[in-house]
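Response to reviewer comment R2.3. The reviewers asked that we include at least one raw input/output pair. We reproduce the pair for Regulatory protein, RpfE type here without editing.
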Amino acid sequence: MSHLDILLPFGLPPPELARDLLRDLKLPALATLMTRAKTAPRRQLFDDFARALPHEMWLASQFSLPGFGPAATAADHQNSPALACAAMRAMGLSVAEGAWFMLHPAHIHIARDHLVLTDIRQIGLSDAESRELFDAALPLFGEAGRELVYGDAGTWFLRADDWQGLLSSTPDATCGHNIDIWMPKGSGDQAWRKLQNEVQMLWFAHPLNEGREMQGRQTVNSLWLWGGAVAQPPAPSQREVFNLPDGFAGLGQYAKTAHAGVGVSEVIATRPEHGLLTLSQLIQPALTGEWSDWLQQLQALESACFAPLLQAMQQRRLDSLSLVVTDSGHALELSTTRLSLKKFWLKPTLTGLLPSHSP
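Raw output as returned:
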């Protein structure tokens, strides 16, 4: 038996735009896979102020990260997934005992009466630029008695053993919102804010930022902290995983096998006994509200992904698939099998992507 779990973050359009957006889409393969599911789709509602997005929570649950295992409740989801140590190992860094957090160089802009975190993908730091900012900030962390480790241009790591109770939020859950709501809270929050403020003041007049501003690029004026984890690996998974999204790629080391940048045809060719494929193309346009790009990306997924998947099931190269489609506050789950595809009397439709309260 060959089964594939497919995660489509932000495949659910925003309720206020849903009908208009779906009207412009031609997705016969996706519509068939959804309409001919073996049972009625299950829709789950999440807290608007959760510290991780629904697709991030779902991924964390697949690897039984602390607070996201099978027995976890909504109350357990009040922290970002514990990913720092996995990310460090994936980058070839040694992980000492203790509690580690991920740090991202970030841009925070001033709205009318609050501060907003922008999409960290738009920073576009080179390795040389990131190292320049890292070297400038390093003495501040040393003075605070905190170990700071360079990972790559977009991700650094902080050791803070006494902050194990600190609740943090993923950058994507925070993106576009008032950061006061999603700032770290709990053990160590005041110490972190002090250190964060010192870095912000140091970088404010940094020559690198002055140059970026003159070039019309985002300045790097803050750091975002999340993903706190104690140095111990989660339980190994027997899944084959494909294309884990930013921030979660380190979990691939705990899977049976892990592949990055793999197309759907290659995924199907492996005939995974139990595979997990993430389609991340819709995350950035959804977070930034670029809905024309969202439409183009989803339409491209039809020919590149959904049509080959449907064909693979019809040709008995894939026995079943489960589809998890999310937005910022919901998750829609359904399963389709080769047998359920025979429901020829059901006309393919995308109405399953509409909000449940829509007429």
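The radius of gyration is 21 Å. The chain has a mean pLDDT of 93. Further pairs are available on request from the corresponding author.
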